[in-house]
Write a structure and sequence with these properties.
The protein is an all-beta fold. The chain has no helices and ten strands. The strands form two sheets. It has a six-stranded antiparallel β-sheet, with no helix packed on it. Strands 3-8-5-6 form a four-stranded antiparallel β-sheet, with no helix packed on it.
């Protein structure tokens, strides 16, 4: 990051599974090329298939669910449209009701999404979180330079399988789905985003 701008990214990391070789169980290393501060937020974890309570990943062909640049709300078979998300506000998106990318199952509990921001100027951050809870103090994307920027992640679904997006500054968003988590598939445990 030569411009020294705060950036956010979503990653899935593997942790040490025991105390061998000097590692602490369930830990990982964060290595940087220069001195920096780091903020870590967690929004879920994978566990062995035998552990109960997990969700299964179901991959999909990437498909557009939301494009707020479209000025009107479209029928369920089209991407969810505008308006943009206003500064210092949240907007909910009923992704589960959309039929644009096929019928999503009623037991869906989390989404694998790529979220793109298209701000009209500097954008401090956006936060994607489950609809129906208070906005947690986390960030999904930071975009101080106001560029078109995309990031992928796994996001817990909220009330009625909806997600909410908070924006510190006005921005359009595009949301593409790449899969979802339900009671079938590879095991994943969805949790509300939390700053570590």
């Amino acid at each position: 990051n030569p411009g020294k701008v705060a950036l956010a990214s979503n990653v899935i990391v593997s942790t040490a599974d025991d105390n061998t070789n000097g590692w602490v169980a369930n830990s990982f290393n964060l290595t940087t090329s220069a001195e920096t501060h780091a903020i870590l937020d967690i929004n879920g974890y994978f566990s062995p298939a035998a552990e109960s309570g997990g969700l299964g990943f179901n991959p999909m062909t990437p498909c557009r669910l939301v494009d707020t640049r479209d000025v009107s709300y479209a029928p369920a078979s089209q991407p969810i449209g505008g308006p943009a998300i206003s500064a210092n506000s949240s907007r909910s998106f009923n992704l589960g009701a959309s039929t644009r990318c096929g019928t999503l199952p009623s037991d869906l509990q989390a989404y694998a999404l790529t979220v793109t921001v298209l701000p009209s100027g500097p954008l401090g951050f956006i936060n994607v979180y489950p609809t129906g809870i208070s906005n947690p103090a986390t960030s999904t994307l930071n975009d101080i330079e106001g560029q078109i920027l995309a990031g992928g992640g796994i996001f817990k679904a909220g009330t009625n399988r909806e997600i909410s997006i908070y924006a510190s500054d006005t921005t359009h968003v595009i949301i593409d789905i790449t899969g979802y988590f339900s009671t079938n598939g590879n095991t994943y445990h969805a949790i509300v985003p939390c700053r570590l």
